[in-house]
Design a protein that fits this description.
Layout lengths: L4 E13 L2 E7 L15 E8 L3 E8 L11 E5 L5 H9 L5 E5 L14 E6 L3 H14 L4 E7 L8 H10 L4 E7 H4 L4 H8 L6 E5 L2 H13 L7 E4 L30 E8 L2 E8 L4 H7 L17 E6 L2 E3 L7 H5 L2 E3 L3 E3 L3 E5 L2
Parallel strand pairs: 7-8, 7-10, 8-9, 10-11, 12-18
Antiparallel strand pairs: 1-2, 1-6, 2-5, 3-4, 12-13, 14-16, 14-18, 15-17
InterPro entries: 2Fe-2S_ferredoxin-like_sf (IPR036010), 2Fe-2S_ferredoxin-type (IPR001041), Beta-grasp_dom_sf (IPR012675), Cbr1-like_FAD-bd_dom (IPR008333), FAD-bd_FR_type (IPR017927), Flavoprot_Pyr_Nucl_cyt_Rdtase (IPR001709), FNR_nucleotide-bd (IPR039261), MRET (IPR050415)
Protein name: 2Fe-2S iron-sulfur cluster binding domain-containing protein
GO molecular function: 2 iron, 2 sulfur cluster binding; flavin adenine dinucleotide binding; metal ion binding; oxidoreductase activity
Length: 350
């Protein structure tokens, strides 16, 4: 079991629509620090399965850490989706779920820039967290486009009406309903977004919707560096089923080669570890082999959970789907995809 997995009690289950529920968690006092999160992050839930023992699924936090909310994930049923249907059908207040600590990098770096928020369906979940936080922390203007099948499909409809009423000079909310207007085209969206083209963009939703939005943004010549997209991916590795030694030495059955190895010094959770780092071993695998509790979820470069900083030395990544150019230029890397290029490397997990 991943050492960052914890059992949490579900305090309340809220029916948002016929197809979506919110799960509000109670966080024990001794885990408060572990569950500090940023707007736009997610939790990974363990869902029991008859055939596989369990499956792991990531669900964005719809709550805001800046509004006094308890950590809340919102889950919408997906056709044929085992985990989402199981959670919607079976979880009640008082139930215990196994949950990984917050992760993800779909997080605004500043609250002083105007925001263009685009969501469809359950993509509103992290957008809602960002929206509430931005209204609380800054004075920026915010424009939200939210696309749905029909009026009954709108998640958080009452909350959005209330926020727009309370912040009429800062927040505009535009609902695009397929039942009334058909699917939006890139021309439709470009027309809508034209007056907001200097905003930072945060985008979350199904592939077809996000592709259309990005076409519209391209038409408006909005630079890639201003566009931030959250993508939902299926996990191929189950972090709840990964077993590691709890000692600081590698298990005897897993010897670690030291020939042609770099030396890495890793600062993590207030501790420093100095290890031989074989040239062909990914940093995350090295840390887990030594029983070091490094953060991770997907191990595929998509989630950004294992982000760390190269303080000294040189490394390279095999794949990168999570970090933007600005983060790369500042020395950040993904442990799950990182190999050493120099003989010594210093790494910090923040």
């Amino acid at each position: 079991m991943n050492a960052r997995a914890h059992e949490l009690e579900v305090r309340e289950v809220i029916s948002e629509t016929a197809d979506a529920v919110s799960l509000i968690f109670d966080i024990p006092t001794d885990l408060t620090r572990r569950f500090v999160y940023a707007p736009g992050q997610y939790l990974t839930l363990r869902v029991p399965g008859d055939r596989t023992g369990s499956v792991a699924r990531c669900y964005s936090l719809s709550s805001s850490p800046h509004c006094g909310d308890r950590p809340t994930v919102t889950i919408k049923r997906t056709p044929g989706g085992y985990a989402s249907n199981w959670l919607c059908d079976n979880v009640s207040a008082g139930d215990i779920l196994t949950v990984l600590e917050p992760a993800g990098n779909f997080v605004p770096r500043t609250w002083n820039r105007d925001l263009l928020l685009c969501a469809a369906g359950s993509g509103i979940t992290p957008i809602m967290s960002i929206l509430k936080s931005a209204l609380t922390l800054g004075n920026a203007a915010i424009a939200l486009l939210y696309a749905n099948r029909d009026r009954d499909s709108i998640i958080f409809a009452p909350q959005l009406r209330d926020l727009a009423r309370r912040h009429p000079r800062r927040l505009t909310v535009t609902h695009w309903l397929e039942s009334e207007r058909g699917l939006p085209t890139s021309r439709d969206l470009a027309t809508w977004a034209r007056s907001h083209r200097r905003h930072d963009v945060y985008l979350c939703g199904p592939t077809g919707f996000t592709a259309t939005v990005k076409q519209a943004l391209t038409q408006l010549r909005i630079p890639d560096r201003a566009i931030h997209q959250e993508e939902y991916r299926s996990l191929t590795d189950n972090p709840f089923e990964h077993h590691t030694s709890l000692t600081t030495e590698p298990p005897p059955s897993t010897p670690i080669a030291t020939s042609d190895a770099a030396t890495v010094r890793v600062d993590i959770d207030g501790e420093t570890h100095t290890l031989p780092w074989p040239r062909n071993k990914k940093l995350l695998d090295l840390l887990l082999d030594h029983g070091i509790d490094a953060p991770y979820v997907c191990r595929e470069s998509a989630c950004g959970t294992c982000i760390c900083h190269v303080d000294q030395g040189r490394t390279h990544m095999l794949h990168n789907e999570a970090l933007i150019d600005d983060e790369l230029s500042q020395g950040y890397t993904l442990a799950c995809q990182t190999l050493p290029d120099s003989d010594t490397v210093d790494i910090t997990f923040e």
